[in-house]
Design the sequence.
């Protein structure tokens, strides 16, 4: 297959004449691994070399229809399992994932370009934890009763039905397992459509699910593009629920499509999160925290603090120390355990991020660090998607670069005079996902946090997650909440049964 191209309209890809051993990933439908009905393929490219590392089925509405049909016929049996039985299945999947956790980390790093250390500590660890967590949650789940003087209300929770789960490329298995685990726990059957850019660990999950012997049709996986496979899933008349994580513009298309038959819908979308650094912050702890918030996963986390708001009395001191820390981050080979920043996911995405750096110059910004390809990238990685961590100051808080999601290793710096101005800047965007506040005064931190229009705010930390807490955004960052009991509620229908007893 070395010299053929899928002609799928993707960027020109580098086909290695010796890549005959690259894997063909398959769909998993009704307990069988299959190619796409069209027999067409997409190329999965390495972010660090630009070379093809796998092929994925270019699935269309026929594959989605087969998967939905399988999920529908598996539903009665799966829904009839007790919560304890379903929890035991989730634990089996978690155990099998744990055995293969190094493989999860290696594949995730290969597919996304993220550092292997991050893939181990975050992606692999959290994917396992998601299955264990929701097994525990569903075991402990106690439906409510409400007494009246002459009646008792029993609330029961029914599965919603066939769940369509669509996920992005930045945290592939972490986000897929965050949806699959609670969906299965509450008795739904699943059709998953992962990002076509990072399909590898979804295929590994299908393999694991097949190995542990989950009944056929309970979990189905369909690879492919958003426009073909994704939109066929969101518009399918026999899908009852869509949980979507991805960009805001895509989320709007998904919402419109899912509305046709009133599917239950959760949208976890983009962010442009503010990091507010107060003058009384402990800078020794704050600088590493703000650097991590800005650049983790090459800045490709929806929660990343890409707008850094600094109280003007400490602006110069903060910026000096911050730039030293940013310039110290090792960028390069993701398989090197010392690497902090790897490659961006695709050449298209790098181009988009670079276009914002160009725009920042037109908007009056000054680049204090980065903005270009890092030095010292080895020859074999010359075609990778590289960008140095980039820091820009001097932009108006209303500029496009300061209000639109860039989703790369790019942060903008903005001084503020007082709390009121900090909040005005923090809230001057259409997004409303997350934020963080850094101060020694926890009362003040909580007060500022309450004024930020987002779904989540951290004080003196960032991405410190308790899986029981609600996760989600406001404004253009999404609709609904997942996490803990919010996930169990989303993946079920609450039904009230009132027993009258005079
Ligand atoms: P994307 O919107 O391009 O794609 C996400 C998924 O949707 C992919 O699987 C894609 O194939 C599919 N898709 C694309 N078009 C579709 C359509 N018309 N119908 C159905 N499915 C379609 O997003 P991305 O570039 O993969 O991910 C980056 C975005 O995801 C960023 O905006 C980031 O902020 C967001 N994100 C949000 C969260 C969160 O929890 N809020 C978490 C991670 C990423």
Sequence:
């Amino acid at each position: 297959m070395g010299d053929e191209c899928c002609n799928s309209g993707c960027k020109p890809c580098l086909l290695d004449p010796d890549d005959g051993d690259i894997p063909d990933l398959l769909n998993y439908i009704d307990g069988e691994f299959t190619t796409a009905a069209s027999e067409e393929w997409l190329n999965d490219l390495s972010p660090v070399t630009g070379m093809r590392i796998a092929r994925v089925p270019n699935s269309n509405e026929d594959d989605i229809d087969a998967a939905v049909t399988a999920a529908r016929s598996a539903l009665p049996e799966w829904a009839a399992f007790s919560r304890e039985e379903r929890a035991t299945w989730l634990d089996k999947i978690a155990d099998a994932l744990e055995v293969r956790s190094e493989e999860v980390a290696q594949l995730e790093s290969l597919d996304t370009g993220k550092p292997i250390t991050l893939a181990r500590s975050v992606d692999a660890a959290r994917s396992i934890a998601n299955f264990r967590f929701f097994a525990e949650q569903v075991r402990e789940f106690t439906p409510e009763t409400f007494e009246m003087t002459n009646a008792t209300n029993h609330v029961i929770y029914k599965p919603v039905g066939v769940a369509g789960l669509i996920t992005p490329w930045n945290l592939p298995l972490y986000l897929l397992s965050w949806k699959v685990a609670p969906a299965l726990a509450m008795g739904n059957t699943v059709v998953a459509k992962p990002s076509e850019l990072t399909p590898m660990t979804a295929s590994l999950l299908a393999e694991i699910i097949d190995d542990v012997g989950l009944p056929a049709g309970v979990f189905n996986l369909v690879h492919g593009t958003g426009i073909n496979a994704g939109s066929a899933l969101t518009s399918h008349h026999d899908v009852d629920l869509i949980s979507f994580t991805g960009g805001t513009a895509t989320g709007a298309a998904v919402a419109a499509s899912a509305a046709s038959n009133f599917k239950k819908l959760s949208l976890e979308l983009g962010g442009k999160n503010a990091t507010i650094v107060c003058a009384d912050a402990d800078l020794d702890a704050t600088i590493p925290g703000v650097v991590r918030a800005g650049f983790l996963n090459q800045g490709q986390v929806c929660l990343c603090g890409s707008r850094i708001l600094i109280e003007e009395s400490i602006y110069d001191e903060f910026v000096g120390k911050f730039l030293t820390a940013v310039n110290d981050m090792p960028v390069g080979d993701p398989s090197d355990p010392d690497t902090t920043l790897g490659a961006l996911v695709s050449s298209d995405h790098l181009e988009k991020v670079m276009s914002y750096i160009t725009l920042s110059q037109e908007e009056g910004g000054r680049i204090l660090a980065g903005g270009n390809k890092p030095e010292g990238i080895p020859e074999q990685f010359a075609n990778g998607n590289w960008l140095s961590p980039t820091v820009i100051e001097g932009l108006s808080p209303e500029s496009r670069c300061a209000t639109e999601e860039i989703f790369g290793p790019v942060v903008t710096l903005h001084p503020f005079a007082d709390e009121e101005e900090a909040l005005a800047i923090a809230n001057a965007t259409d997004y409303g996902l997350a934020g963080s506040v850094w101060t020694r005064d926890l009362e003040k931190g909580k007060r500022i946090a309450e004024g930020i229009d987002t779904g989540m705010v951290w004080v003196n930390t960032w991405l410190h997650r308790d899986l029981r807490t609600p996760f989600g955004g406001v404004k253009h960052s999404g609709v609904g909440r997942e996490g803990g009991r919010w996930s169990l509620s989303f993946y079920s229908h609450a039904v009230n049964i009132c027993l009258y007893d005079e």
